[in-house]
Amino acid sequence: MKRLVFTLVAFLLCFSGKTNSKIERPRISGISGVRFYSTNITGARVFYAQVMRPSGICLWCEEPSSPAGVCLECEKQSIPPVIIPVSPTQRLTLSAAPEPAPSNLLYEIVFATDDIKAMKRYLTANKVQFESAKSSTTTCTVIDPEGHRISFTELPKTSQGSVAETSSRHLIHAGFVVHDRAAEDKFYKDILGFHVYWHGGMKEGEDNWVDMQVPDGTDWIEYMLRVAPDASHKTLGVMNHIALGVPDIHAAQQQLIKNGWKGTEEPKIGRDGKWQLNLYDPDETRVELMEFKPTKEPCCSAYTGPHPGPPQ
Question: What is the C-alpha separation between 260 and 277, in angstroms, rounded?
Fold first, then answer.
């Protein structure tokens, strides 16, 4: 109930479509982390060990206590959340799902900013309600118009800049179901400064996907449109997903096979012109491997921003 009230209040207060031009928005440089619920932490460990190929014995750190932003339901679980490093500035977190498990297992997307105090001032000036954990002075959280949990975190000064451009593999986007694009645009585009990186669909002239790139980097979120309100668990797992950028999709596939991956899908070129390979964790949540840059012209629209990738 508390989260529902927070969502409704945030929706009513936040989205007038006009920003306060007197307050400068701090940089939003990319995705710092994503948190998923998991109903099978043990199986997820095996899966992500194959995907992330951590060096040496798997000793991913586990959070011994509730950090800033940890889901309230997780505090009731005996299994602590598992943190999986993706790149020097990014992490994926798996938290034990409550019972019954929610239909949407994507719990939170965290964006990096260079000044959390300035971000709070900016959100306040634009009438966006936020929450701040008492245990942290470097994060704050808002709920977007469709109820998605979005947080901002201030990176250490040594890590600031364009997030996730220092690794041959990093989390380049996160996608989630969107039913009201206009409402989401008022938040991400008009207030936060995101812009359309690419958009397209299964058919010409129809958008199923809208990629909204962060204003100060190359990562993006992906609106997954035209999804039925009563979509199945499997469909929601496909739609609410993350994508890991890789330099070479075929080399990545061969490494997965060496790591013990048993998937049946093959790499393919998507409508956006990029090679991709879909993987599915034990909860049927999709983890998409995607080459950083397109190899052919995309359908439907041209790219409007820089592509992600490791330093050249």
Answer: 16
DSSP per-residue letters across 154-204 = EPPGGG-SSTT-SSSSEEEEEEEE-S-HHHHHIIIIIIT--EEEEEE-SST
Provide the whole-model pTM: 0.86
Cβ neighbourhood burial of 205 (10 Å; 0-12, 13-18, 19+) = exposed
Six-digit token string for 92: 């994926």
**For residues 265 and 263, what is the distance between their CA atoms, to the nearest angstrom?**
6
Nearest residue to 255 via CA among 285, 284, 280, 277: 277
DSSP symbol at 290: E
- Contacts of 253-256 with C-beta under 8 Å, sequence gap 24+, read 253/277, 253/289, 255/53, 256/50, 256/51
Q: Which residues contact 15 (CB under 8 A, 6 or more apart)?
A: 145, 183, 186, 187, 191
Q: Classify residue 57 by burial, with Cβ atoms within 10 Å: 0-12, 13-18, 19+.
A: exposed
Closest Cα to residue 126, out of 185, 181, 187?
187
For the chain, which residues score pLDDT lower than 70?
Answer: 1-18, 20-21, 53-78, 158-168, 310-312
**Each residue's pLDDT tens digit, 166-204:** 345 789 999 999 999 999 999 999 999 999 999 999 999
List, edge to edge, every strand of the sheet that includes 170-177.
195-200, 209-213, 220-224, 170-177, 241-246, 286-291, 275-280, 268-269
What tokens appear for 227 in the block? Answer: 């999804």
